[in-house]
Amino acid sequence: MFTSISGRSVLVTGGSKGIGKGLAAGFAGEGAQVLIVGRDREAGEQAAAELSGKGGGPVTFFQGDVSSAESCAAAVAAAEDQHGGLDVVCCNAGIFPSARLAEMTPEGLEEVLGINLKGTFFTVQAALPALERSGHGRVILTSSITGPITGFSGWTHYGASKAGQLGFMRSAALELAKRGITVNAVLPGNVMTEGLADMGADYIATMEASIPLKHLGSIEDIANAALFLATDEAAYITAQTIVIDGGQIVPESLEAMD
Ligand code: NAP
Predict the structure, then answer these.
(1) Comparing C-alpha atoms, which of 18, 78, 26, 66 is closest to residue 43?
(2) Is 142 close to ligand 1, i.e. is its CB under 6 Å away?
(3) What are the catalytic residues?
(4) Is residue 186 part of a domain?
(5) Quick one: pLDDT band at residue 194, thresholds 50, 70, 90?
(6) Which of 35, 76, 136, 187 has the fewest CB atoms nearer than 10 Å to its CB?
(7) Alpha carbon of 72 to those of 28, 54, 83, 174: distances in Å?
(8) Is there a domain that residue 252 lies in?
C-alpha cells in the first residue's frame, strides 16, 4: 500500500530505550538506515546491536545529549557520514521527572525544558541542510497528550515542554514547507516503556483503568504512526498531530466508560 522507505536515513534521539527504540525498530524493519542517539553508551550500543541483528536496515549508536546544540550537530554529521544523507529526524528524547510547582527548582525546570523542548530545536536546526537536500525531509516529534491536551499534577514543566513542541511544530512547518520538509507530531498516551515502568505498579494500574481500551500502548503503536508520517503517501500532511492513546483523552470520568 505504501511506497517503500527502505534505504532512507533516519535519526532517532532517545532511540536506546522505550518509544525511541520502538521507532528505531520500526524504521529498521522497513529497511531504513537508523542512527540512534542517547547519553548512556552501554545502553545505546546494546540497543543498536539488538536491532541490527533483526535483519532489517542497519542501526548504529551515537553518544550524545540533545540539550547541547554541539552534540546535536555532531549526531547529524554522524548520520550523514554513515548514511550519505538524512531524510527523517525523530525528536523523541525526553525525560519526565515529577515535581510539584511548590518544590520545583530552577535547575529541575531547566533540565526538562533543556532536553524535551530545546533539544527539539537543536536537533531540527542541526538537521535542516540535510533534510532539505533529501527532497523528502520529515521531522517527527514525540510530544504527549500531557500538556497539549491533558494535565497532570506534578508535570507542569513536562506538560509545558510537550505543548511547547507543538508550538514549535506549527511555525517550523510553515518555515520549512518551502524546503519540502514536513513537521508533524505523535502524541502518545501511556506507553509501556522503561521510563514509564519507573512510575510504579500503582500508577500503571490507575492508568489502565482510565483508558477505554483498558491497556497501555506499546512502542509499536507509536512507531506505526511515525512510520506513516515518514512515507511518501504522507507528503501532504504537515503541522499535524496523531493522538495514540487508546481513547484516554475522551472520557469525562470513569463512569463515562461504563
Ligand atoms: P524512556 O524509556 O525513559 O527513554 C528515554 C530515551 O531518551 C532514552 O533512550 C534516553 O537515553 C533518551 N534521553 C533522555 N535524555 C536524553 C538526552 N538529554 N539526550 C539524548 N537522549 C536522551 O522514555 P519513553 O517513555 O520512551 O519516552 C520517550 C519520549 O516519549 C519522551 O519524549 C516522552 O516525553 C514521550 N512520551 C512518553 C510516554 C510514555 O507513556 N512512555 C507518553 C507520552 C510521551 P539516555 O538516558 O541514555 O540518554
Answers:
(1) 18
(2) yes
(3) 158
(4) yes
(5) confident
(6) 136
(7) 21, 27, 16, 22
(8) no
CA of 213 to the centre of ligand 1 (A): 24
- What amino acid is encoded at 82 in this protein? Q
Put the strands of the sheet holding 182-188 in their side by side order.
Answer: 59-63, 33-38, 9-13, 88-91, 138-142, 182-188, 241-244
Report which protein residue has its CA nearest ligand 1's atom 18.
Answer: 65
Kindly report, residue by residue over 98-157, the tens digit of the pLDDT. Answer: 999 999 999 999 999 999 999 999 999 999 999 999 999 999 999 999 999 999 999 999
C-alpha cell at 120: 527539539
Q: Report the domain count for the chain.
A: 1
Q: For position 87, which CATH number holds?
A: 3.40.50.720
Confidence band, pLDDT 50/70/90 cuts, at residue 196: confident
Q: Is 164 in the pocket of ligand 1 (CB under 6 A)?
A: no
57 touches ligand 1 (CB under 6 Å): no
SS3 labels along 155-192? CHHHHHHHHHHHHHHHHHHHHHHCCCCEEEEEEECCEC
The finding on whether 31 has its CB within 6 A of some atom of ligand 1 is: no
| Whole-structure pTM value | 0.98
Instruction: Tell me the residue range of the domain where 165 lies.
Output: 9-247
Tens-place pLDDT, residues 180-193: 999 999 999 999 99
In a domain, 4, yes or no: no
- Cα 18 to its chain centre, rounded Å, is 10
Residue 111: CB partners within 8 Å, gap ≥ 6?
67, 95, 97
> Does residue 253 lie in a domain region?
no
